[in-house]
Amino acid sequence: MIDTAVMRERLFTMRMSEEEHARLDEVSKHYGLNAAGTIRMLVKREHDGLSDARATKTTKKKPKR
After folding, report:
1. Which among 12, 19, 18 is positioned nearest to 43, based on CA atoms?
2. Average pLDDT over every residue of 33-45
3. CA distance 51 to 7
4. Calpha distance 56→17 (Å, rounded)
């Protein structure tokens, strides 16, 4: 378990335009999450996609010449 001091160190603040905030609200509402949960979900999704892309890249065979 992470202690409170470490959690505070990991806290960050984002400034968003009205348009960006409206987008975040709409996506959050769609998934039934708050803003923090939505950001966590999207970051995890992107990270998983990167992992998949790396795995695919390493298993591709080089074309024969």
Report:
1. 12
2. 95
3. 26
4. 36
- Indicate yes or no: pTM above 0.85: no
Contact 24, 38 (CB under 8 A): yes
The conformation of residue 32, written as its DSSP 8-state character, comes to T
In 3D, which of 57, 28, 21 has the Cα closest to residue 42? Answer: 28
One-letter amino acid at 49 equals G
More confident residue, 9 or 25: 25
Question: Are the C-beta atoms of 42 and 28 separated by less than 8 Å?
Answer: no
Provide the angle, in degrees to the nearest 10, between the axes of the packed helices 18-31 and 35-59: 80
The gap from C-alpha 1 to its chain's centroid, in whole angstroms, comes to: 22
